[in-house]
Write a structure and sequence with these properties.
The chain is mostly helical. The chain has twelve helices and no strands. The radius of gyration is 18 Å and the shape is globular. Mean pLDDT is 84; it is low at 276-287.
Length: 288
């Protein structure tokens, strides 16, 4: 991978990690369309740490309050907003971690097929459209309960299938749980941090040292670029989702899904993932 390619990967990761259009799908589509080697699931998970850093900085106050509320709930009041938010995030993280480890073989191999990604883009697009019905939800984030973490967490687990989108699935789950658009977007961001951080650290520990030396610098560059671009996207996206909701992204998802399936069927692009011999396939505990 060249430095220019790594910069492009970083831009794509930063732009698509928080948009409900699936960063994993786009990082898989990019090499297929450009006829580059697929860098693999380990590369995808590691560069997500850049966008995790962006969320940590942007939502530091919310995250620290939720964490401290969660800690204090062991010996104090378990019914504060902070405690309930912390426990909701905790259970959502447990669910995706357990299911991610249980399905690691499918995630790293079969699920990276472009046919799977194409159909996933369309399926989640339809679910997003249904979830964002006008005036469906009026709950604000202060009303969050622990059970919401389980419900939204189960939706977030759909993101283990590339193309479903972590933000898309969790926002959809929050909307179906009755939250308004602003609360759904905020909960999606908060629940993303532990899951994506664990995935990136796990992949980095297991595989970064095994990558060919030529891949380490591009991976670092892509991670830094994804942080810069991701931070710029967050503020815009919250305002956009609050006003417009996820529906504008529905049409994009469906269109891209149809195009991907069509190109695969016409044998213009190969649906099967192909990795460089020097890149060791790895296990993923979370995908977007």
């Amino acid at each position: 991978m060249t430095i220019l390619q790594s910069i492009i990967y970083g831009i794509v990761q930063g732009l698509t990690e928080f948009l409900p259009i699936s960063s994993t799908a786009h990082l898989r589509l990019l090499p297929a369309v450009m006829h580059w080697n697929d860098p693999g699931s380990a590369f995808t998970a590691v560069i997500q740490l850049g966008t995790v850093g962006a969320v940590l900085i942007y939502f530091w106050r919310d995250l620290s309050s939720a964490f401290m509320g969660w800690v204090r709930s062991f010996s104090g009041d378990k019914n504060t907003v902070e405690a309930r938010t912390g426990w909701a995030v905790f259970w959502a993280t447990v669910l995706i971690a357990v299911l991610g480890l249980a399905g690691e073989k499918l995630i790293e191999d079969s699920f990276r097929n472009l046919y799977v990604i194409g159909f996933s883009l369309i399926a989640m697009g339809i679910l997003m459209y249904v979830a964002d019905r006008p005036k469906q939800g009026g709950r604000e984030i202060e009303s969050v309960q622990v059970v919401d973490g389980v419900k939204i967490g189960l939706w977030q687990c759909l993101a283990l299938i590339p193309g479903m989108s972590r933000s898309g699935s969790s926002i959809t789950g929050a909307l179906f749980s009755g939250f308004d658009r602003a609360a759904a977007a905020r909960l999606s961001f908060l629940m993303s941090v532990p899951a994506v951080t664990l995935a990136g650290l796990y992949e980095g520990y297991k595989n970064f040292k095994k990558l060919d030396g030529d891949m380490k610098s591009p991976t670092l560059v892509a991670t830094i670029v994804s942080f810069i671009v991701g931070y710029a996207v967050i503020n815009w996206l919250i305002g956009f989702l609050s006003k417009k909701g996820p529906r504008p992204f529905v049409w994009y998802r469906v269109a891209v899904g149809v195009i991907v399936i069509g190109l695969c069927a016409a044998k213009v692009i190969d649906p099967a993932p192909h990795q460089e011999a020097s890149t060791v396939p790895s296990q993923v505990t979370s995908a977007n």
